[in-house]
Amino acid sequence: MAKTMNSLKQLKLTERMSAPTKILLTCRVLTDDVLSGISAGPLPKHNGVSWRGNSCMKDGLSDSTVRRSLVGGFYDAGDAIKFNYPMAWSMTMLSWSVIEYKAKYEAIGELDHIKELIKWGTDYILKTFNSSADTIDRIVAQVGLGDTSKGSSQPNDHYCWMRPEDIDYKRPVTECHSCSDLASEMAAALAAASIVFKDSKTYSDKLVKGAKALYKFGRLQRGRYSPNGSDQAIFYNSTSYWDEFVWGGAWMYFATGNNSYLTIATAPGMAKHAGAYWFGSPNYGVFTWDDKLPGAQVLLSRLRLFLSPGYPYEEILRTFHNQTDNVMCSYLPLFNSFNFTKGGLIQLNHGGPQPLQYAVNAAFLASLYSDYLEAADTPGWYCGPNFYTTEVLRKFARSQLDYILGKNPLKMSYVVGFGNKYPKRPHHRGASIPHNGVKYGCKGGFKWRETKKANPNALVGAMVAGPDRHDGFKDVRTNYNYTEPTLAANAGLVAALISIADIPTGRYSIDKNTIFSAIPPMFPTPPPPPSAWKP
């Protein structure tokens, strides 16, 4: 408990600090505590949450169709379901943030820890398919169930309100045989992590091998991982797999240097199917665990800015670059592409619930893209005829993070433990049930769900779902649209915080070259000059 209390004290101290220092320390505590709070399996080495214990230690082994260990990984939110789709995206995001901002993580003493968290996720992903094979025919999509709409009284992860450590009901495993979106996102996660761990050659090679098998499987066995009526469709529905082909292809190229992956990611038909030409549609530029296109376009704009591979990739890379510029314009209030609340929060989900997950992803892309432009000695970008400096993007990113940390009409921090006013009743089973040695069964824990008292355990650093479109917020445990923290949202928050944190690390904020380590020279080395002529 001492470690958690220390983290609370650190977060409260930030109220008296400058904005950059607030962001820096919040990032440090986030990587330290919140992901440990939703870890599955045996406790990680650096668990900072005293009220957690080993949980779901028979996952996979107790399923008659799988019968292998699927212990580990992360729960998706305030329940105990493990969804590979948002989990893989979260690992990709964390890896991306480490690749770009390794020096910042190192400066705050969190590099080793964030790498351990990523490895906790990728080790689990490697368990969910035959990672030793070159060709696979199935992958695990999910462990546990959450659908309660059919009136069944069969205990599952939503029907019950229990600490994960006390779960004693069956947790079925869902496999898929044609799931291009999930396979490509898992490939992206392993490929990005292979760059993070490139100095550990054996592990990095293992990640690349698994990523190759996954991406190949996704390309050959076409289909969405979330069929209608399934748990996946209810909770983490995938609308398309074309964006994952682009996103996964880009990460595969950076991990391997194999041009065939870049050819896929930049194929004109692929860009069209992924929606690269749909600028002006309501959700264009909204980067989420479902729609990877905005992130893929930023990632491939990086390639054009720094390596400029030219023909035959230039046409689509230029399109992605131009569309990235357009997306950055759409984030600015003056263009009215998206509404903003009176308090200043961008409404990327058009006034829908749980808005913060979208805002942090946009803040990350804006901050990162501004760093790309500066590293390319470009002072800004154009929105139509008007030129805007990179500081405009950073101002947008800061404004969203400031709102989340308390600069809003309610003066409410939406990060647990930050400041003097923050959510006390997050929708989270483990945090809401006392860690007192008493086992509360499937229905026994509901008295803790329904109580109006604050959670007995603080999930320090967890960003909750957030306010409504009127800047209103209800600190009510039973309303997950306000108070539930998710793995995907908090991965985006960590990435956004480290990107905007003001930490001197050299000439550029980003690491320009590490992501390109596997890529061979774009153009052949010219032959040496002829020897001097001798008569």
Automatic annotation (TrEMBL):
Glycoside hydrolase family domain mapped to chain residues: 40-497
GO biological process: cellulose catabolic process
Reaction catalysed by this enzyme: Endohydrolysis of (1->4)-beta-D-glucosidic linkages in cellulose, lichenin and cereal beta-D-glucans
A Pfam family the protein falls into: Glyco_hydro_9
SUPFAM superfamilies: Six-hairpin glycosidases
UniProt cross-references to InterPro entries, sorted A to Z: 6-hairpin_glycosidase_sf (IPR008928), 6hp_glycosidase-like_sf (IPR012341), Glyco_hydro_9 (IPR001701), Glyco_hydro_9_Asp/Glu_AS (IPR033126), Glyco_hydro_9_His_AS (IPR018221)
Main EC class the enzyme belongs to: hydrolase
Active site: 427, 475, 484
Keywords tagged on the record: Carbohydrate metabolism, Cellulose degradation, Glycosidase, Hydrolase, Polysaccharide degradation
Keyword Hydrolase: yes
Enzyme Commission identifier(s): 3.2.1.4
Entry's Gene Ontology molecular function annotations: cellulase activity
Family designation: Belongs to the glycosyl hydrolase 9 (cellulase E) family.
Record's protein name: Endoglucanase
Organism of this sequence: Panicum virgatum (Blackwell switchgrass)
